Amino acid sequence: MSDNKPVIRMDAEAPEGYEGEGFFATNLSSVIGMARKFSLWPLPFATSCCGIEFMATLNPTFDASRFGMERNSFSPRQADMLMVCGTIAKKLGPVLKQVYTQMAEPKWVIAVGACASSGGIFDTYSVLQGIDKIIPVDVYVPGCPPRPEQIIEGVMQVQALCESESIRRRDMPEYQSLLESYDIK
Question: What is d(CA 140, CA 27) in angstroms, rounded to the nearest whole number?
Answer without folding.
Answer: 30
